[in-house]
Input
Amino acid sequence: MRAHPIDRPADLDVVRESCDRVADNYAHMVVTTGMGDIRRHPWLKASIDAFADTVGELGPVLDVGCGPGTVTAYLTERGLDVSGVDLSPRMIENARRLHPQCRFSIASATELDLGEASLGGVLGWWSLFNLPRDVLPQVLAHFAHALKPGGHLIAGTHVGDEDAVRTEAYGGVPVRWTTHKWRPEQFVDLIVQAGLHPVAELRLPADEWSGPGVVVMARRPG
Ligand SMILES: C[S@@+](CC[C@H](N)C(=O)[O-])C[C@H]1O[C@@H](n2cnc3c(N)ncnc32)[C@H](O)[C@@H]1O
Output
């Protein structure tokens, strides 16, 4: 049990149900259209490669909100000691089916019990945007505490000012969740408040799949 538990998002069960509902379509779209597949997006791949080059030797890596495991599998292939975790059991079923060579488990980012300085790297790769605005800083602080000195976080998220209530996603599947968008400077600020030093920031314009986004990589000092 953690000494200071992270607040449980009020909508966690609703988000989990929605993620379960979209999981099959999401996994199918990654495979058939390349959506979310970093191999098809050179700048996203470049940031994941920079992350992998940096944390490769530092210790275990955790892909939080790994979905169908696309990035977990890529990092495994690159030789990293990586595992994936996701809120949605159905996402994890898909991840295990698509990438049987990888390690996956089911848990919310808000319920992880990560040891102090136990990780070389942690990812929040387009998986933290459902967290309420007052909960994300707590999750980032837990990530920072779990990183070894010199360990890195890489996080990507949707850019904007609003809390967008989604009623359908990924091919018209009915969902109920809120996408909490962040301005890049706010998102970087949260990461700094968590005790990490930003080392790179990549801004992405809207594309056929998604609105604008930002990727931030940050290091635990020491
Ligand atoms: C847009 S998908 C991204 C999946 C994966 N990172 C990728 O790039 O393909 C968002 C993922 O975050 C997961 N997720 C949402 N809230 C979460 C939470 N509180 N804890 C862990 N995972 C969560 C969803 O189940 C979903 O798999």
Summary: Helices lie at 12-33, 42-55, 70-77, 89-98, 136-146, 184-193. The first strand starts at residue 61 and ends at 64. Residues 12-219 form a domain with the Rossmann fold fold (CATH 3.40.50.150).
